[in-house]
Amino acid sequence: MPSSHVQPSSEEKHINLRKLHPIEASHLHARRERVFLLLAGLFLGSMTMLNILGISRFIQLYQLPWELASGDVWPITFAVAIGVLPYPLTFLCTDFVSEFYGRRRANWLVTVGLILNVWVVFILWLGGVLPGAFESVPVDGVPVDANGSPTAFFQIRHLAFGAVAASMLAYLAAQFCDVYMFHFWKKLTDGKHLWLRNNGSTLISQLVDSVAVILVTHFFAVSLTSQPEVADWIELTILIATSYAFKVIVALLDTIPFYIGVAWLRGYLQFEPTLENSV
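-> structure tokens emitted (279 positions)
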């Protein structure tokens, strides 16, 4: 029985090839690179938002009454920094890149993310040292606008500088840990149990990130504690636990889109990732 699939003629193939840029070896190659560009863009864009937004605002999740030794009751706030919101997406992106493009490319993406962090810091520094327009004489070293309010840029700059060391150290530790653990589980299970390498790598790396970013921010940048009636270590523990719990919930929820994405990309990229589990 003849196949219903009609092969393109040599003229059609020639026309299709003319649509490709000389650097693109084939339509399949171009498709694979565009998917990587999308994943890399989401990853790097999320990293940029994380650094700029950082700890500029905390989102309250829950308040728990805490009875002090004096008998007073003080509300313990469970909150996450707004910069944490886009962060779980970065681990989903690196998991997709690790699954289909290998460990080396995933590590290179993490390295580019570090370079981007340095670039953001440089622009923030440069914007602060260059002479400003439409500003009044600085008050306590912070320029003010026509209304006498501190310039928004310097507020953002101060918060970003305060947390950038923490975010960069935590970023390096967590992202490289994520890539390493992903391929560790993939090799150990011979490419099986997709849920294990997705969740196992993310849960461990998110713990590393949560502990590192909170402790480094508190001890080497700006203090995160704001309730003098409560011991610093209690507040820091709550911040770490809350941040990690939020990331764990998101990580578990992204298992479904990861499965769906992998199933779809296998056909779209015409590649079976289980054939490669050691690179």
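Confidence is low (pLDDT under 50) at residues 1-5.
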